[in-house]
Amino acid sequence: MKHLLSIEELSGAQIEKLVDLACVLKKDRKASPQVLNGQQWALIFTKSSTRTRVSFEVGIRELGGSVMFLSGADIQLGRGEPIKDTARVMGRMIHGAVIRTFAQQDVVDFAQFSGIPTINALTDDEHPCQILADLQTIKERLGGWKGKRVCFLGDGDCNVARSWIWASARLGFELVIGAPKAFQPQEIFMQRVPGNSVSVVDDPAEAVGACDVVYTDVWVSMGKEAESADRIETLKPWQINAALMKHANPGVLVMHCLPAYRGKEITDEVMEAHADVIFDQAENRLHAQKAVIVEITRKG
Asked: How far apart are CA 45 and CA 110, in angstroms?
């Protein structure tokens, strides 16, 4: 494993290995292996961030490395330099890169032309680091995902939902995408997904029924701000609230990848009732991403 570009590119065994390693690293942060000793890594972000930036900066330092943060305004990418040219330059100067941007192809091209370990910290297509942290949280709370039913509620065609779909296909747990028809995964995408572990429904109560995990994300992703009013109006019936949660299993985990917009995709009441799980998710970004870095820098 040389890079982490998507969940789609991982096997089930690779996902399980990363989650297991994340759990080990979490047990004793002071014993983090110094795999980045003497290395300089760059965070290249053209999308804003809280959890992703903080967790990667802390994680790289805990693994012995140094880190620099570069926004789109800081480098020539923001003025139109091709990603392959930026990659060729940075590949001669740094040891690894974490990229948070819009186009998935930019991350793929950077990995190809830089020749250094590259991590997708979010694109419009996928959010692999988030899903690894989520799987770690489910393992900690439920002992694993085998035989579990996970529901993703809301915009089922967003990057987080797509990464969940690939995780379900690779690991075999049941995933229900609950979304109005306008926000369901595109058919051309679903045709690429093997197996039959993923179902799509357009009724919120049916979607959460008998679920072990109910998961949501923001309704207006970065880059979709112009659609905000229409999205909020269409997705209102898909809000995670106390009435809807009555249809889920007792003891259900409610998860949110944050930031949460209380009163929109989730109520303040439900958010606070499940805050311990949701903020475990946020913390686990650190441990899961450290596991990714350890794995892609492993020698031999």
From this structure: 13
